[in-house]
Every structure is written in structure tokens, then in C-alpha cells.
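User: My advisor, Dr. K., asked me to get a structural model of this assembly before our group meeting. I'm new to this, so sorry if the format is off. These are the inputs:
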Amino acid sequence: MRKYVPEILIGAIPVVLAFLLFLGQNVVPVLMFAVLGFVVFYASRGRGKLTALSSQQRRPSKKENPFTFEQIGGQEKAKQELVEALDFLVRQEQIAKLGIRPLKGILLAGPPGTGKTLLAKAAAHYTDSIYLAASGSEFVEMYVGVGAGRIRDLFKEARSKAQKEKKSSAVIFIDEIEVIGGKRDGGQQREYDQTLNQLLTEMDGIYANEAPRILLIAATNRKEMLDSALLRPGRFDRHIQVDLPDKKGRLHILNIHASNKPIADTVDLERIAAESFGFSGAQLESVMNEAAIYALREEHEKIDEKHLSMAIDKVMMGEKTDREASKEERERVALHELGHAIMAEIIRPGSVSQVALSPRGKALGYVRHNPLQDQYLYTKAFLNGQIMIALGGAAAEEMFYGERSTGSRGDFDQAMDIVKTLVESGLTELGIIDASMMTKEAWASITRTILDELMGQTKETLEAKREVFTLSLQTLIREETLSGEEFRQLLKENAAA
Ligand code: ATP
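Assistant: The format is fine. Below is the predicted structure of the whole assembly, which you can bring to the meeting.
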């Protein structure tokens, strides 16, 4: 009977209106109240439940290909750790016999675009589970209790979907968990607190003998922001670091994304992997895609090295802009870039992979460096060398024009970041110190000391190569872009001359 209440009410309205009209009453105010009541009723019903849209978004379409660990490049350690954790779900009987408590949550932490979502999808496939995904920001609402309601619905949906599809487990993936799971500051953020509490309650309600079993996988790139209640044993107690790929990983990812594209035989993907140091999986996917677009624009049937090289520049620096620089400006930019490139070849021979004068993003020209090998530890000498390469542009401008321009701003930011690393790692004359105790004046003083000294050395080194600058300048202006090999050849010829 109760479930027919809305229908009875809707049926009663025209009867009441007809009766009022029969009595000769004005029905307009009654009608207005009825419409208002109707709107409020449906708006409140919408809240507290997942909206149709977000529920739709979360459901992977039936046609979506199952995603496997083989389709994820690099990340060998993360994959191995994840598979070990997932075996808890796969080998449920043995786990129960040994009385091991169920694994409830796995936290994937790492920079954006490294494949955390892919790992969660592959985990669902590996464990033959239902896969449901949501993002932390979907649970953020103005109204207290709505986020909590959505969490409840998400778990309910996972259980019912698993039952419907006759699966024994479900994987719920929550991206950007820090949005709801950030450290609680005891007060103001009541809505966030309720959402987080609901998530903790749902996690506490996962039992070993429950069917279907639910496994939560969350992803974040701000692990340090998470509330300790989320990370304690019994909740997200497996933490897997998903880092930027190393060279081998990058090659693997490039190969995966090249598999559906026609690549010219001359292309050396290993070289592209070496040149894309610091790229995430998502950026590598973008490199492959952009290279294919360049090939299409040039009506080539295959993607060649040039397309890939242009794609790396695009992903790293942004799209080419059509800013027209004056002749004087172009000459200054060319000398500036030569300053960086010549310094780089002196400090790390063979490391320049491209010198370009074409404006891209905010830069009027740029030098792309090839790190030669992946490196995770840096010595003082290495970092000083990096600073000198960064200062090379400004030093060249001073050498030829007697003054610098605003074009060195980004270089100085980069140099100052390296100074910060030097200070924090105890590699300066200040010795091992707590950098957080340093005053602004102390920072300014040490930065000035280091940069002044290295600027002096940079100018001295480049001054000895003044001839090389003048001989290379016109070639660079004419060609606009020189590859690393072309640039080294030019230096060799000019040095001999
Ligand atoms: P975010 O933290 O921004 O959500 P994420 O770490 O979850 O990022 P994904 O969504 O998994 O990143 O990756 C985005 C895209 O990048 C994928 O669809 C895929 O094309 C590509 N990609 C990222 N990492 C890899 C990888 N290891 N192997 C193959 N492709 C990858």
C-alpha cells in the first residue's frame, strides 16, 4: 500500500481541484503550492542518491575490453606487489583456513598519468571481479550527508552488480581519494568528515566470509595528505608506489601504444625512450598519438622519427605558436639557445638532442636535453653543471649584448630550484642544516653566492668559445631546428675552423 502513496496523491490532486472549481473557489494558489511541493519532493529525492549521470559514468560499458596486466607498460614492481596482494582475494579458501583477515583496501600512490587506473582495472580482471570506479570529487556536495549517501550507494551497487553477474567479488576504485580522505581538522568540514566516516564504516563492514567480497582500490598523488584513520591496519594497509617509468618502462609503454600504429622501420623507439626522460605513461601515450597526427598532416603512411621528435617537443613544451619575432629578437634567442647548448655539450658531451628556434608554449626557442641515462642520485658537481647549463643562455646574452633580457626568467627559476636542492641536501658551504629554519635573508644570501660564482664560471667557459657562437649562429637561424647530431657536427666543424 505504502509504495502507491505518490500515485494516490497524484490521482487525488485533479479530484480536489475539480471539487474547488465546483464550489467556485480560486484554484491558482493551490496549483502553485502543488507545483512547488512537487519540485521540492523530487529535488530531495535526487539528493542522497547517486545521480543517474554519475552512476552511468561509473559503469563500464559491457563492450569495454577487459584490461590485463600485460597491457600496462613498465611498473613491474607495482604489478608484482599488486598481484601478491590480489592473491588474498583469489586464494580465499587457504586465507580463511589460516585465519588471515581479509585484505580490504589497497592504496596506489604516485604522480598523475602513471597507470593507477589501469592497474585497478587489471586487478578487477585478474580477480574476475566486477569493476566500479568513482572519483573523490564525485562525493563532494554542499549538503551534509549527500557524500556519505553516495558512498553507501556505491557499496550497495557493487554488491548487487556482483550478485547479478554471478561474480564472487567486486573491485571498487576511488580515484583522487585525498579529496574525501584528507586529514580532518576537527570542525568546519562536516560534510567531508561524514563522507570519510561513511567510507570507514563501509570498510569495517567487509568480512572474510561475506559474499560477494569487496576490495577497495584507491589512488592518490598526495599520500601525505591522507587521514591516518584511512591508512591504519585493516583499512588501506597495502601501499603500492606507482612511480614515473624508467627507460625500460618507457620503451615498454611506447611499444604498447605503437602496436596499433604503422611505424617506419627506421624508427628507433629506444632512442625515443631515452629522450623522453621524466615522461609519465599518459605523456608517452600522447607522444605516440601526436606523432600519428603529424604523420597524417604530412600525408605519410608511416610514423617516422621526425614525427616522434616533434611529438615529444609538443608534449614537453606545448603546441607551436605563430608568434613572429623580429630579426633582432631571433638573433638574441639564437645566441641564448646556443649558450645553453654549447654549455651542455661541454659539461655533458653528447647530451643535446635538439636546438630549436621555433616558438612553443611560452618559449621563443629551446634546447632539448637527453639525460644519457636515468639517474636518481645527484652529486654536487652534477648539480653545479646543471645550474651552469641553465645559466648558459643569460651568460651568452651578456657576452654579446652586454645585458640580459627577460628571456632568462625560466632559466633562473630552474637554477634556484637546484640551489634549493643543494641546500636541503647539505651540499653547500652551510653544511647539513634544517632548511626550514633558514630565514629569507639566509636563502637570498646563499642563492646569490652560488649563482654569482657559477655565472662567473659559465661566462669564462663560454668566452673561450666565442668563435663557435659566431660561426654557428647563421646556420641555426637558417635551419631553425638542429638535431643533436647536426649540432655536434656543426660544433666540430666550427671548432676545427
Ligand atoms: P591520474 O592520477 O591522473 O588519475 P593515473 O595514474 O590513474 O592518472 P591512468 O588513468 O591509469 O593514470 O593513465 C592514463 C592513460 O595513460 C592510460 O589510459 C594509458 O593510455 C596511459 N598510460 C599510463 N600509464 C601507462 C602504462 N604504464 N602503460 C601503458 N599505458 C599507460
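One thing worth pointing out at the meeting: The pocket of adenosine-5'-triphosphate is lined by residues 72-75, 112-118, 175, 219, 221, 253, 256, 281-282, 285 (CB under 6 Å).

User: Perfect, thanks a lot.
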